[in-house]
What does this fold into?
Amino acid sequence: MDTKLRRIADYLSSRHAPRDIDPLAIAPELLPHFFILDVRQTPTDDGSRLHIRLVGTALDNAFGRSVKGHFLEEFLHGPRSADVLTGFYRCARNHQPIWMRQVVQIANKAPRFVEGVAFPVTVERIYGGLVVGEVSDSRAIGFESHPL
It folds into this structure.
């Protein structure tokens, strides 16, 4: 696990209620990788969507624009996007923290990884961290996840 994610995971795992989590208490170098998601029911009640409530600047930079206020589903791409969404929903539903990593190849760019941790604080709210970077080995393309 990325060291930034490990530090975010250690912080979140020691908090057990929403009032115990203070993004301002997180080390400043970790804040660009921090996120908060709201699990929202769709108006037709046929499912849920992940609303991006708060997101650090490193994540905006990775996506090339501000993602706060949007739905996570708008930004996922690649053949394993459904696995990523399933991981977040399972995290919220089962109240089980999760680590996930996806490596994707987009057009003529170097493969990149997206690695994250997610901690359910309530069934409607997920806190976590995310890092994005390039990988040199295109054979690493895929998805993996593990409960924390």
Q: What stands out?
A: DSSP finds three helices and six strands in the chain. Residues 24 and 114 are 24 Å apart (CA to CA).
